[in-house]
Amino acid sequence: MRPLRWLLMLLLGVGVALAIAAVVLRLLGMPSYEVALRPFEVAGTPEERAHGKALTAVLCRRCHFDRDLRGLAGAALEDAPPRLGRIFAPNLTRDLETGLGSWSLPEVAWMLRTGIHPRSGELTVPVMPRWPRMADADVAAIAAFLASDDPWVAPREVRVPRTEPSFYATWLGFSRWEPHPYPTAAIARPPISDPIAYGQYLVDDVYQCGGCHRDAQDDPFTIDPKAPGYLGGGAPMRDAAGEGVHAANLTPAGLRDWTVDDLRVALVDGFRPDGSLVRWPMPRHLGLGTAEVEAIWAYLRELPPVSRSVLRAPRRVVGERMDAGRHVYERLGCPSCHGHDGADLRAVAEHFDDDAAIAAFVRNPGQRDPWSTMPAWRDRVSDEELSALVAHLRALAATGS
Ligand code: HEC
Ligand code: HEC
Ligand code: HEC
After folding, report:
1. Below-50 pLDDT ranges, the chain
2. 355 CA from centroid of ligand 1 (Å)
């Protein structure tokens, strides 16, 4: 019996030690680091602010945008991994109390580059990306945009709850996640005349495609562009309908039959060569010019091919005869952002004058907001399908189901 008793005592001891560690970590919070702000300048031109808006639209809007307030007033991040805690993207508007109104440009640059909160010195959860190698001119453009008088950042007093990292996240904060050092030398954008270097900069350092287009085992927060299998895809994610989506293989083995124009349509418009929707959470890279897409293409073609076939999860289909409108809604992929029940589409009757206006919106959401992340179906949907779809949206709004 002796050995059993010892074993029990040992287990109890380990349990108590773990409990104490959990309490201590919780009290400690995320690790803190020194903040040494560096002087930081913006050009202050309208072109710089416009470029900053284009970057913000792709890099920040996804998390920090409040759809009802139509600005960067913050949001709860429902799709962040729950084991990291309760995650909220803060208010980035110019409100003095609840937003970034009192932040200096060096503070914004410090936050974006290092991941260390400039006010508290704490490491933020890496759900908030870091851009340690982004060129100074691009960081400046984002900072200048956040300080501008654009409607997206007009002061809105919204107190977003603070992110509460879980015990597990705090433990990772101490053991695994490193803050990035603030660069000591100036970082210039590679010249666009060198497409491969420029494409590499866009893919690795700005848009960080590898954070999603990784393998299931890779840690999304410590992606190494030099590791084997880079951009080979496979990682499972979920769309808004809760259905599985797998990040695609972007190496030459994955995009085998693609052309540079196919890539442009997928990145900017959100559709594949076969006409199907590239589903959420793949962002629409609005504002990417032809030269930039060509550079991304040039770089992707140079990657070592990874022969990994990535699942394209089957989609739920509703028989056309059973319910023509729902059939179109599901077939086009609307649930990937609006869910099967279209819970956020119930106000169409208030927001649009008539059926024609709803139909026009689905064909081109950019009419209402040029930065809309909703793809424009244009003539990818027939008039007949569109009227069935509009009837379905009306029914959703009317029955509330
Ligand atoms: C994937 C979601 C996500 C994206 C994309 C994202 N953020 Fe964040 N951001 C967060 C989260 C979550 C926090 C809170 C982190 C914490 O407190 O640990 C945060 C915190 C911040 C903060 C600190 C604000 C404060 O009041 O504490 C700033 C500034 C910020 N983000 C700016 C940006 C900018 C600028 C971009 C785009 C260039 C961006 N974020 C993109 C999720 C995101
Ligand atoms: C937030 C995560 C995320 C980011 C960031 C991201 N992607 Fe994606 N991407 C996805 C997912 C998920 C899919 C699969 C969508 C589907 O199956 O419908 C995808 C699909 C694609 C496709 C379609 C490929 C195919 O075979 O169908 C291309 C091309 C693509 N991404 C390129 C890129 C490039 C280039 C970047 C960076 C500039 C990028 N993605 C950034 C998540 C992301
Ligand atoms: C990639 C994500 C995405 C997909 C896919 C998508 N939407 Fe949207 N949709 C949005 C977003 C985001 C908005 C909020 C308005 C905006 O940002 O322009 C929106 C707004 C709408 C609105 C306006 C709602 C209102 O009350 O103002 C309608 C109607 C709509 N979507 C219908 C559809 C239909 C129908 C489909 C499928 C054909 C679809 N959406 C596919 C993201 C998406």
Report:
1. 401
2. 38
Cβ contact 231:247 at 8 Å: no
Task: Express each pLDDT in 63-116 by its tens digit.
Answer: 999 988 999 999 999 888 899 999 999 999 999 999 999 999 999 999 999 999
Q: Is the dihedral of CA 67, 52, 203, 124 positive or negative?
A: negative
Regarding the beta carbon of 336 and ligand 3, being less than 6 Å apart is answered: yes
Ligand 1 atom nearest to CA at 59 = 37
Give the sign of the dihedral formed by CA 350, CA 353, CA 359, CA 363: negative
Tokens 């992707």, residue located = 300
Determine if ligand 3 sits within 6 Å of the CB of residue 91.
no
**Which residue's alpha carbon is nearest to atom 24 within ligand 1?**
90
Q: What angle do CA 47, 204, 121 make, to 5 degrees?
A: 80
Amino acid type, 214: R
Half-sphere exposure of 176 (CA within 13 A, CB side): 12
Is residue 347 lining ligand 3, measured as CB closer than 6 Å?
yes
Whether 126 and 84 have beta carbons less than 8 Å apart is answered as no
Is the C-beta atom of 345 inside 6 A of ligand 3?
Answer: yes
